[in-house]
Amino acid sequence: MKRRLFWKIFLPFWILQTCIMLLLAYRVHASFGPERPWWVQPERRAMPVLGRYATWRYSTRGEAGLRELFHDIALEKRSAYWLFDDRMNELSGFWMPDEAPDAIHRALQNHGIAQSRHGTFIAEKVTDSKGRNYVFAGEFFFPPLFQSLPGSVLAAILFSSLLTSLLCAVLAQYITRPILRLRDAAHEIARGNLDARAGLSGSTRRDEIADLVKDFDTMAGEINDLVRSNKGMLMAASHDLRSPISRIRVALSLVSSTPEAERQELLDRIEIELLRLNEMIEQILTVARLESGQLKFTSGSLLLNQVIGEAVEDARFEASQTNVEVVYDENWPEVTMIGEENMLRSAFENVLRNAIFYSGVDGRVEVAVTIGSGLAQISVRDNGPGVPEEALPKLFKPFYRVDAARSIGTGGSGLGLYLVSGSVKFHNGSVRARNLQPHGLEIIIELPITSPKTTASSPGVQARA
User: What confidence tier does 133 reach under pLDDT thresholds 50, 70, 90?
Assistant: First the structure.
C-alpha cells in the first residue's frame, strides 16, 4: 500500500465515525424499549380491533376459525397470538410458552405490556356482542437492529456515514498531498535535480504543512545557491591559483638565463606570488574550518579603538596606491569589549579593502563609529557603484560574487565578506549592507561592548571632506 499515510489518517477517522454511528443506532434502538419498545407500537395500537375480530371469529367459527385467523396474522419468528376466556383458558389450542401466563398477567396490570426473556407481551381485555369477557394477547419478538429503527433515523445514520466517509477521504487527501510532493521533491534533489521544489505556485494554503513545504523549498534554494556558488568558487579558485603558479613558473624559467644582478627582481616576484598563494589557501581553509565549527579562538578584553585604528592605518597605506582617501575621525570614547583581536582586525581589513577597491582611482572611503547602549556601530562607506538591491542579502554568503567575471579579474573568490560575517557573529554581533544615494555601498557592523571608558554615550564624528 503505497499511500500509507493516507490510510493511516483515513481509516482511524472512518472507523471512529462508524463506531459512533453504530453506538447512536443502538442508543436509538434502546431508547424505544424495554418499557415502550418501538417495534410493538403498531401492533399495540391494533390490538383492540384484532381482539374484537378474534372474539367474533371464535363465536361464529369456533376454535378452527380462530386458529386459522391467528395463523394468518402471526409472523414467523416475529409474533404469536392467543385468546383467553374469563377463566384464562386458551381457546385457539396454539402452543404457548411456559412464561406466557405470568407475562400476560403482568401485562394486564401494567398498561397492557410486559417484558419476558424472549420478547414483549401485549394483552388487551375484550368484550363481545353478547357481553362475554375475553383476554386477547400476543407475544412479539425482538427484531433485528435496523428493522427496529424508524426509517428516518436509519436514513440519517446512513447519510451521516457516507458524508463523514467522504469528509475523511478529503481531509486525508488534503493532509497527505503536500507531504507526497515533499517526498517526491526530496527524491529529485537526492538524484541531483537541485531545481526540484515541493510547493505549488499560486497555492493559498495557510497551515503548518504549507509552512513546512515553504521552508523545504527555501532550504532547497539555499542548497542550490550554495552548490552553484561552490562550483563558481572552484572555477575562480582554479583560475586564481593557476595565475600565480604560471607567473612563478615563468620567473623560474627566466632565473637560469638571467644575469646574477637581475635575478633578485625575479626572486622577489616569486616571493610575492607565493605569499599570494598562501593567502588564498589560508582563506579557503579558514572557510572550511568556519563551516565545520573547527575554528577556535581565544577571546579576551581588547580596546576596540586600537583594533579599528590599526586596520584604518593599513588601509590608508593600500589606498595610497590608487589615491583613495580614507577618512576616519578617532574622536570617540575609548571602548573595551570581549573578543579575539586578530579576528576582528582581519574583518575590518576585509571590509576596508573591498571599499577601497570599488571606490576606484581618486575615490573616497569614510569610516565612522557610533557608541550606543551596549553597542558599537562601525560604518564603512565607499563612493563606488554599489550593488543590485537583490544582491544585498547574498553579499555575506560563502563564495557569492556579484560579478563573477570581475571577481576573477581582481583575484576575489567571494570569501572576504563571508569571513567578515563569521567573525562578527563569533563576537555576537551583526553585519548588514545597504546602497547609498546617488551611489556607493555602506557596510554596517554592530558589536556588543563591555563599557566605554567615559560614562556618557557619545556618537563618533562622521567626517566629511
Answer: very high
pLDDT tens, position by position, 343-376: 899 899 999 999 999 898 999 999 999 998 889 9
b/e map 380-400, b = 16+ CB within 10 Å: bbbbbebbeeeebebbbebbb
- Together in a domain, 140 and 214: no
**361 in any annotated domain:** yes
Residues 344 and 404 in one domain: yes
Tens digits of per-residue pLDDT, 163-196?
Answer: 877 877 887 777 778 888 888 888 888 888 888 8
- Identify the domain containing residue 64 by its residue range: 33-147
Residue 326 sits in the same domain as residue 447: yes
Whether 262 and 307 map to the same domain: the answer is no
